[in-house]
C-alpha cells in the first residue's frame, strides 16, 4: 500500500489546507479575526472537501495493507489442510502465493459494487476527518499566533512546524476511536472468526462489547507519531510558500 499511500497523502493535505484557507477567507468579515465557531466551520468544510476526493484512495490503501493478513491466514489454513492430507495421499503440492494489486482491487470493486464500492465507509471517514479538521485548524491557528511578533508578519518556520505537530497529534488522538471504526468497516475480507459489521453503530457496539472501551484507542500512539511530523512539515511547506516558489519557476506562457 506504499504507492497508494503516497498518492493519497499529497492531495489529502493540499486539499485540506487550501480548502481551510478558502473557507476562512469567506467566513471572515472584512478581514477581521475569525471567532472560534467560524474557525471550526472552516475546518469542517475543509475536512468534508478532502474526504469526498480522497476516500477511494484511502479505501484502496486499507485493502492493500489488509491483503497480507488475509493471505497469511489462508496460506496457513491451506498448509494445515495439505499436511493432514499428505499423510494419506503422499506428498502435497506447494501453496502458490498470489499478490494482490491496487488495480485488481479497483476492478473487483467496480465490477461488483460500482462507484459506490470505492466509497465504502464514507460515513465513518467523514466521522473521523471532519472532527479532525474541526480540532486541528483552530488549534493550529491559535498556537501559530503565539509565535507571531507582529500580526502582519508570518511566524517563523519552526513555530509553524511545532504548531502543526502539536495540533496534529492532539487531533489524531481525539478522533482515534472514529479511525478504528472506519478501518473495521472498510475491510472487505474478514479473517477467521472475525466479526462483520452492518454499520457504524453496529461496529461500535460489537467493539465495545467484545474488546472493551480501550479498543477504540488502539494505534493512537502510533497515529499521533505519524500525524505530528506529517502536518508539521505540511504547514511549513504551506506557510513558507514553497509551492508558490516552484510555480513561479515554471515558464510563463505568453499571450
From TrEMBL:
InterPro entries, per database record: MCP (IPR002067), MCP_dom_sf (IPR023395), MCP_transmembrane (IPR018108), Mito_Solute_Carrier (IPR051028)
Subcellular location: Mitochondrion inner membrane
Keyword Cell division applies: no
Keywords tagged on the record: Membrane, Mitochondrion, Mitochondrion inner membrane, Phosphoprotein, Repeat, Symport, Transmembrane, Transmembrane helix, Transport
Parts of the chain that traverse the membrane: 224-247
Principal location listed in the UniProt entry: mitochondrion
The protein's name: Mitochondrial glutamate carrier 1
Bilayer topology: Multi-pass membrane protein
Pfam family, one: Mito_carr
Organism, as annotated: Piaya cayana (Common squirrel cuckoo)
Catalysed reaction, written as an equation: L-glutamate(in) + H(+)(in) = L-glutamate(out) + H(+)(out)
Solcar repeats: 34-146, 155-244
PANTHER family with a match to the protein in the record: MITOCHONDRIAL 2-OXODICARBOXYLATE CARRIER 1-RELATED (PTHR45678), MITOCHONDRIAL GLUTAMATE CARRIER 1 (PTHR45678:SF3)
GO terms, molecular function: L-aspartate transmembrane transporter activity; L-glutamate transmembrane transporter activity; symporter activity
Known role: Responsible for the transport of glutamate from the cytosol into the mitochondrial matrix with the concomitant import of a proton (symport system).
Family listed: Belongs to the mitochondrial carrier (TC 2.A.29) family.
GO CC list: mitochondrial inner membrane
UniProt-listed GO biological process terms: malate-aspartate shuttle
